[in-house]
Design brief:
Blueprint: E1 6-11, E2 24-29, E3 32-35, H1 44-57, E4 61-66, H2 90-100, H3 110-114, H4 116-119, E5 123-124, E6 127-128, H5 141-148, H6 166-179, E7 185-186, E8 197-200, H7 203-209, H8 222-231, H9 245-260, H10 274-279
Parallel strand pairs: 1-4, 4-8, 7-8
Antiparallel strand pairs: 1-2, 2-3, 5-6
Helix pairs in contact: 1-6, 2-6, 7-9
Length: 287
């Protein structure tokens, strides 16, 4: 099994602005995790450039990306059931999102959810698409597994509320499309023998593994963060310029990846079939 020497986590944001406040990048090092912060802060374009640099350098890094890289497919046999142009796999989905959002600035994806046929599948402010479904909306198979384990995943088709993940997912798909062929994304792509690789993460899984109980998963001070890091066998973090939940999610998740990436079981979930790997993907850490 591939063993990495470097680990990073990216807390993502779908906010349609130049520099979303929710973006945070951390790397787990031998002396503890530390934020990676460029002059002027992060934008989605800057993170894309950073990832491209890692690809060019052949960095031996496992990168956790906190977003859903695909929409539900298995439950209905389609991303957008009833639409003849619905993509057949994640790669085609990323290309479609990029094409529809090509004119949206800051790698946003507003045009995707405004497209008349696609808008029928999303829950938006004051608008519930007639194909959104019941209750919390459609979930991917790995998200159903998260529910079974006691977590509370949100449908990628939900664009409303603090827990919405749809905008993050769609903007992330634009980045993944642009990275195609540069950095493999597991499990859509095979794990490479060398160089960087991306996995989807769910920061709440890292928090639970660190002993942070349900309802208290957001850490906002150095003392709480270091206590959680110690539970993962990590040294304390480097002093941080910020302690909002985005920064601490990235710091803790990077340390968690470093702690668990060697676990072969996490790379072979029993329900991860080739079809699921091609269409929906999988959240690393869910078995």
């Amino acid at each position: 099994m591939r063993r990495f020497t470097r680990f990073a986590a990216i807390d993502w944001s779908g906010q349609a602005v130049a520099k979303p406040a929710g973006l945070a990048v951390a790397e787990a090092r031998d002396d503890g995790p530390a934020l990676v912060t460029p002059n002027g802060g992060w934008s989605r374009e800057a993170i894309l450039d950073w990832l491209t640099m890692l690809a060019d350098d052949g960095a031996d890094m496992l990168i956790g990306l906190d977003l859903s890289p695909a929409l539900p497919f298995a439950d209905a046999g389609s991303y957008f059931p009833g639409w003849a142009q619905s993509p057949d796999d994640a790669s085609a989905l990323w290309a479609m999102v990029e094409s529809l959002a090509a004119d949206d600035p800051h790698l946003a994806a507003t045009s995707v959810v405004n497209e008349p046929e696609l808008s029928r599948h999303f829950r938006r402010h004051r608008a519930l698409g007639d194909r959104f479904g019941q209750g919390r909306g459609r979930l991917r198979l790995c998200e159903e597994r998260q529910r079974a384990a006691g977590f509370s995943p949100t449908s990628c088709f939900n664009l409303v509320g603090a827990a919405q993940v749809g905008k993050s997912s769609l903007t992330g798909m634009r980045v993944l499309h642009r990275l195609a062929g540069r950095i493999p994304v597991w499990p859509f792509d095979p794990l490479p023998a060398s160089g960087p690789a991306i996995v989807e993460i769910y920061t709440t899984i890292a928090a639970r593994a660190a002993g942070v109980r349900a309802g208290r998963s957001k850490l906002r001070d150095a003392e709480q963060l270091d206590a959680a890091l110690a539970a993962l066998g990590s040294p304390p973090h480097a002093p941080s310029p910020r302690y909002d939940d985005h920064a601490t999610d990235a710091l803790l998740s990077a340390a968690w990846l470093r702690h668990v990436a060697h676990d072969a079981a996490l790379w072979s979930p029993p329900m991860l079939t080739p079809h699921i790997a091609r269409t929906e993907g999988w959240t690393f850490g869910v078995v």
